[in-house]
Amino acid sequence: MKKITMIVLAIVCTAGILMAGGAKESQTSSSRTTIKVSTWDLSSNPSVSNAVAAFEAKNPDIKVELMDIPSTEYTQKLSIMLNGGSDLDAFFIKDADTTKSLFDKGQLADMRPYIAADSFDIEGFNGLTKNFTMPNGAVVGLPVRSDWYVMYYNKDIFDAAGIAYPGNDWTWTEFEQLAKRLTSGSGATKVYGALLHTWQACVQNWGVQDGKHTIMDSDYSFFKPYYEMALRMQNEDKTLMDYATLKTSNIHYSSAFLTGRVAMMPMGTWFITTAIDKVKIGESSVRWGIVTLPHAEDVPQGYTVGSATPVSMNQASSKKDAAWKFISFMTGEEGASEYAKAGAFPGRNNEKTLSSIASLNGMPEGALHALQVTNISFDRPGVDKVAEINAMLGEEHSMIMLGEVSINEGLSTMSARNKEILR
Amino acid sequence: MNTTQHHDRKRMSLERHNTLVGISFILPNFIGFACFTLIPVIFSFILSFASWDGFNAMKIIGFANFSGIFSDRVFKAALSHTFTYSVFTVFFSMLMALLLAVLLNRKVIGTNFFRSAVFFPYVASIVAVGAVWNAMFMKDAGPINAFLRLAGIANPPGWFASVAWAMPAIIIVSVWKNMGYFMLIYLAALQNIPQSLYEAASIDGANAWNKFWKITMPMLTPSHFFVFMMLTINSFKVFDLIFVLTGGGPGIATKVLANYIYDQSFTAWNFGKASAASMILFLIVGTITVIQFRAEKKFNDFL
């Protein structure tokens, strides 16, 4: 009995101390506004934690409470939290194409008043803002990070063939011609002129590069020239690694390129840090470079395809002013420079951030010019049913690339299925 | 009078006590079952009549999901692939399992080794199985096609890279994976057949073929039903194997109902359509099971 009393007493005392401690803490921090922000995989994204630290250093009156969620569950968790009336003040949106549906549910605040009051520059986002501008004109997200397609090339293969490296203003026709001259050898030691990875994006994106078409269009004939090019290169010129082989043996584009088997590969800017790391740790000895993505004859130089990560403000937030300070910092000059320092491409890309990225250790020379872009078309626009359309395009893409259907048949099936999905 | 009443009450309380004890034993399991199976199943049934993306408010839309999926080319293809896959997988798995069981039911050196070898695929991880068979079936560099070319077939099939051959390849892998487990079931049943039956038949002059058809096969009937039922149910809900081997491709050539349900729920966030497809899958499996039970009963009565 005595023992029990002692234990109870001990628990009560500890609880009292803990509660007192808690109360004390909340008192001291009451002078600071705490905002809650959700993001994902913090440990592998130093760009986010660095930028947040810089923000807190500059705004001592605001404390940012970061909620770290695993990236695989982020999109769903965010939705569930917002539906449940979460007290999040701002959040990163992982799948930019879900922005519209969050807006439709009334969960995203319109940031136009804040943008106007601060005369915050939204021109610096290279046209990315329009993807987060809703039909009624509301701006519900600002791009904090962006990635887009560039052309990676292997300098060793170019040198061995005695061919000059491509420049930043070139066309897909020139790409196809170059691939022919760069292909050599046969069997296991064959060097391929180019690699188009098995994603449908690596053919279809060149169709939406002009900024006029999107993958939601119901008539997919604008893909045709690029499928013709890909099949010509794969089946006639044999300058492309075979789709069936890549697909069935699960060859990753990174290993194909970094083992020196391909001369040119269009791929996203996210691959830059991977390439730098692999060379740094000695897993690859490829001397690589990047140039701007080729373009069609009627598409201006500097047009590319990509995506962006927006930060948004919770409509239900009670600390909107502090949230805006956070968002404007993250997507402003300072946030951008923190991102660039960590090797991530900020949404606000300019000479300064790009030269900061281009001067990263291990970056090939000339990267600064290669990274200049004038327009980034979204490969997946933020509209309803985009994920379903995207999955469908992937299925039909494999049919065309495997030669199971002709290009025309494949494209007309895509169009028919597009109409069925959007019906 | 008074004593009987008292007695009754006592019995009642004893019964109640026993019931409570019984319930308390079942309860932990039942709570788990209710939370993770029963309630989701009921919810899924409701969902099949609703339009819901998992986030927005649910809207009851009657049978629209059902009419919707039956005009969906992917669903129709998935349904027919499921039947193709099931028919061939069940047939060949049973055949191979029985064949192996009969072969390995003898006392020869190495029997145990071969039994383990055949059983091994059943316990192997499905992801590993997928990776290895993907490599085996590779179009140009794969060992299977190398062997076929050696055997004089100049243009061997593209397997997973071909619409026509992807499903047969999956069926081969699936039979290979299934047969060991069902062989064990047959083996156990074979060893339970009294030797005296065979001896009697020998005395009557029956040959090996007669003995197999007239003794072995009928004596295996309960096992046939069990194997058939397990295989059918497993085949209709196949998902993981196809997911790791082809992901439903090329195109939609190997998409089965479970893939369709997965896509509808986790790509399209269309839980209504996914639930409607689940209900149809449930109906198919349920119907087949009921038919099998009836048939088994009839057949056993007949015996």
CATH superfamily of the largest domain in chain B: MetI-like
Largest sheet of chain A: 9 strands, mixed
Question: Beta-strand level of the residues of chain B, as a percent range?
Answer: under 5%
How many separate domains make up the residues of chain A?
2
**CATH fold label of the largest domain in chain A:** D-Maltodextrin-Binding Protein, domain 2
Average pLDDT figure of chain A: 87
Question: Could you tell me the strand content of chain A as a percent range?
Answer: 5-15%
Rg result of chain B: 26 Å
Order of helices and strands of chain A: HEHEHEHHEHHEHHHHEHEEHHHHEHH
The secondary-structure element order of chain B is HEEHHHHHHHHHHHH
Mean pLDDT of chain B comes to 88
Q: How many beta-strand elements of chain B?
A: 2
Q: Shape of chain A from CA axes?
A: globular
In the CATH scheme, the class of the largest domain in chain B would be Mainly Alpha
Low-confidence stretches of chain B: none
CATH superfamily of the largest domain in chain A: Periplasmic binding protein-like II
Any idea what the shape of chain B is?
flat
Q: Which CATH architecture of the largest domain in chain B would you pick? A: Orthogonal Bundle
Membrane topology (chain B): Multi-pass membrane protein
Keywords (chain B): Cell membrane, Membrane, Transmembrane, Transmembrane helix, Transport
Protein name (chain B): Carbohydrate ABC transporter membrane protein 1, CUT1 family
Pfam families (chain B): BPD_transp_1 (PF00528)
